[in-house]
Amino acid sequence: MRFDTKIAVLLRDDLAVWQRLNVTSFLVSGLGSRAPEVVGEPYEDGNGTVYLPMFRQPVLVFEGGKEVLTTAHGRAVSRGMDVAVFTSDLFATGNDRDNRAAVRAVPRDSLDLVGIAVHGPRNGVDKVVRGARLHG
Predict the structure, then answer these.
(1) Which domains, and CATH codes, for the chain?
(2) Number of Cβ atoms within 10 Å of the Cβ of 68
(3) What pLDDT sits at residue 136?
(4) Ordered DSSP codes for 76-104
(5) What CA–CA distance (Å, rounded) separates 85 from 77?
(6) What residues contact 80, with CB distance under 8 A and at least 6 apart?
(7) Strand partners for 7
(8) For residue 50, what are the contacts with CB-CB under 8 A and spacing of at least 6?
(9) How far is Cα 69 from Cα 85, in angstroms, rounded to an integer?
(10) How many whole angstroms separate alpha carbon 86 and alpha carbon 5?
């Protein structure tokens, strides 16, 4: 199935494995609230146990250097796409309130980005992540 939109996560390539997993989890958690159409229906097993819904489309994970991330972020923001950010400062915080305060304290062009998630039209997302490589 081909979707009109794309979900992409772009991670900085110098993160430890646990950081990559953590950042990816946090980044995609916001997309369903901003773009509810990306979330499918709840799952149910053969016994009738109901499970939470998940994205109805794949999430592509990319990686790149700090410059690639900064460029991709600028492209996404300038195109008005739904974007989630994770900065290096968030590794030192322990809750949502402090996370938001850490991001708020830094001007957009000075954010030390370690990951972004973006959702939008397929071709727009492709342009945003241009220069990044699929996570290996």
Answers:
(1) 5-35+54-134 (3.40.1490.10)
(2) 20
(3) 81
(4) HHHTT-EEEEEEGGGGG--SHHHHHHHHH
(5) 11
(6) none
(7) 59, 119
(8) 42, 43, 44
(9) 10
(10) 22
CA distance to 46, 90, 119, per residue, from 4 (Å): 32, 32, 11
Quote the tokens at residue 30. Answer: 């916001």
Please classify residue 66 by burial: count the beta carbons closer than 10 Å to its beta carbon, then call 0-12 exposed, 13-18 middle and 19+ buried.
middle
Q: Name the residue among 65, 51, 57 with its Cα closest to residue 14.
A: 65
Give dist(CA 33, CA 36) in Å, integer. 6
Helix (H, G, I), strand (E, B) or coil at 25: helix
What does the DSSP 8-state code read for residue 1? -
How high is the pLDDT of residue 105? Answer: 97
Q: How many CA atoms lie within 13 A of 112 on its CB side?
A: 8
* Average pLDDT by stretches of 10, the chain with 136 residues: 92 97 95 89 97 95 97 97 96 95 97 97 96 92
Helix (H) or strand (E) holding 56: none
